[in-house]
Amino acid sequence: MALTNKDIEKLVEKFKSVFTTKEEFQFLKSEFKELKNDVLNSHDEIMKKLNDMSTDKIVMMGQYRRHDTTIEDHEIRIKKIEEKVLVA
Q1: Among 2, 8, 22, 24, which is least packed by CB within 10 angstroms?
Q2: Is residue 13, in this structure, part of any structural domain at all?
Q3: Using CA atoms, how far apart are residues 48 and 41, in angstroms rounded to an integer?
Q4: Smallest Cα–Cα separation from 5: which of 16, 13, 21?
Q5: Domain carrying residue 78
Q6: What is the gyration radius of the CA atoms in the chain, in angstroms?
Q7: Which domain of life is it from (predicted)?
């Protein structure tokens, strides 16, 4: 049983709907590039926010250490004053 031209045309029509054409592939490729760019841009924004938060944390730790030292100094001074007042 040989294929007729009509059978071949039917097969060609079926395969057109099954296989991706070059134009469709290019469209998908460009869509994927846009999606990739969007993802990378959001990634950049997230990384910037994390970097800002890390910088803020470093600054806050420095301030905490400075305040902690000041509080310790005040506690020592208060104890000395209390000792002098309670002795007198």
Answers
A1: 2
A2: no
A3: 11
A4: 13
A5: 22-87
A6: 37
A7: Bacteria
pLDDT digits (tens, 9 = 90+) for 36-83: 999 999 999 999 999 999 999 999 999 999 998 999 999 999 999 998
- pTM (two decimals): 0.49
The pair of structure tokens assigned to 34 is: 């846009």
**Number of domains comprising the chain:** 1
Is the CB of residue 20 less than 8 Å from the CB of residue 28? yes
Question: Does residue 7 sit within a domain?
Answer: no
Give dist(CA 35, CA 57) in Å, integer.
33
Cα(27)–Cα(35) distance, integer angstroms: 12
Q: Report the greatest alpha carbon distance in the chain.
A: 123
